[in-house]
Design goal:
With about 260 residues, the protein is of the alpha/beta class. The chain is built from eleven helices and eleven strands. The strands form two sheets. It has a six-stranded mixed β-sheet with strand order 2-1-3-5-6-4. A five-stranded parallel β-sheet has the order 8-7-9-10-11, sandwiched between helices. The longest helix has 14 residues.
Length: about 260
C-alpha cells in the first residue's frame, strides 16, 4: 500500500511530541501512514505549505500548532461547525479534490484532559485564561459550551491585560495558560505569589519534551492541583485521528500514546 504522509506544522516544531504519538499508533495498528514535523518559519511559509499539499495526493492532512491555527481557519475551503465557531483549526484534511477541510479538536481535547487530570468539569467554574490566540479560543469555547460561570481572558494587548489582572486580584477556580510561555526558559505567565493567592488549580496548555513547565512546577510546590499540556495533546490527537479516518477505540489509542510520552 502507498504510504500516506501527514505533517505537524508549527514554529518552532523541533520539540513537538506529535510525531511520536501519531507514529506509535500507526505502527501499532499497522497503518501505512507517517506524521512528519515541518517548520514553515513564518506565515508566508505556512501559506506556501498549504498550497503545496493541495497539489500532492500522497498527503492526507496536517496538524497545525502555534502560531498558525487562526490563519489555517482562514485558508481552509471548508470548516466544521466547531472550527467555524472557534475561528481556529488544529487539524486539516486534504480531500480527494485537493480542497482542505478544517477541524478544531483542541476544545474537546482540553475538556477531556481537564477531567482526566484535574477531575474538573467546566460547569460552574470561574476561570482565568491567559492568552488570546488559537489555543485560547478553543479553551474558552470549551468552557463556555460546558457552562462555566465566568471566563476571564487576559492578554498582553487585549481589553483585560496582565497589569489589570495583578492590580485587581480575584479568586478563580482555575488558571489556564494558553500562551507559549513556559515551553522554553523559566518565564512564568503570572507571578507565583498571585497564583497562590488567587487560584485553586492550574492547567498549563503547553508542555516540554522532558520535565514539566515552570508554572506547573511552581503550582505543585504551592500544593495546587496542576497539569501540563501532555494530556491535552493526547486527547486532541485522538479526536484528530478520528477526523483523519481512524476507526479506533479511544481508550486503546490513549493507551498506545501514553507509552511514548
Amino acid at each position: 500500500m502507498t504510504l500516506r504522509r501527514y505533517f505537524v506544522v508549527g514554529t518552532p516544531i523541533a520539540d513537538s511530541l506529535s510525531p511520536a504519538l501519531h507514529n506509535a499508533v500507526y505502527q501499532e495498528l499497522g497503518l501505512p501512514r507517517i506524521l512528519e514535523p515541518y517548520d514553515p518559519i513564518d506565515v508566508a511559509g505556512f501559506e506556501s505549505f498549504l498550497q503545496a499539499i493541495r497539489q500532492d495526493d500522497q498527503v492526507g492532512g496536517a496538524c497545525v500548532t502555534l502560531p498558525y491555527k487562526v490563519r489555517a481557519a482562514e485558508l481552509c475551503d471548508t470548516l466544521t461547525e466547531t472550527a467555524r465557531r472557534i475561528g481556529a483549526v488544529n487539524y486539516l484534511r486534504r480531500e480527494a479534490d485537493g480542497t482542505l477541510t478544517g477541524e478544531n479538536t483542541d476544545a474537546a481535547g482540553f475538556r477531556s484532559s481537564l477531567y482526566l487530570e484535574l477531575g474538573l468539569e467546566p460547569r460552574g467554574l470561574r476561570v482565568c485564561v491567559c492568552g488570546s490566540g488559537g489555543v485560547s479560543r478553543a479553551i474558552v469555547d470549551a468552557l463556555q459550551q460546558g457552562g462555566a460561570a465566568e471566563v476571564q481572558v487576559v492578554s498582553r494587548r487585549g481589553s483585560f491585560t496582565y497589569a489589570d489582572l495583578l492590580a485587581a486580584p480575584n479568586t478563580y477556580d482555575l488558571l489556564v495558560n494558553a500562551t507559549p510561555l513556559g515551553m522554553t526558559g523559566d518565564t512564568m505567565v503570572v507571578p507565583p505569589e498571585w497564583a497562590h493567592s488567587s487560584v485553586k488549580a492550574v492547567f498549563d496548555a503547553v508542555y516540554r519534551r522532558t520535565g514539566t513547565t515552570p508554572l506547573v512546577a511552581e503550582a505543585r510546590r504551592l500544593e495546587l492541583a496542576a497539569c501540563d499540556g501532555r494530556s491535552m495533546l493526547i486527547e486532541q490527537a485522538i479526536k484528530g485521528m478520528c477526523f483523519w479516518g481512524i476507526d479506533g477505540d479511544e481508550a486503546a489509542l490513549r493507551s498506545i500514546m501514553r507509552t511514548v510520552i
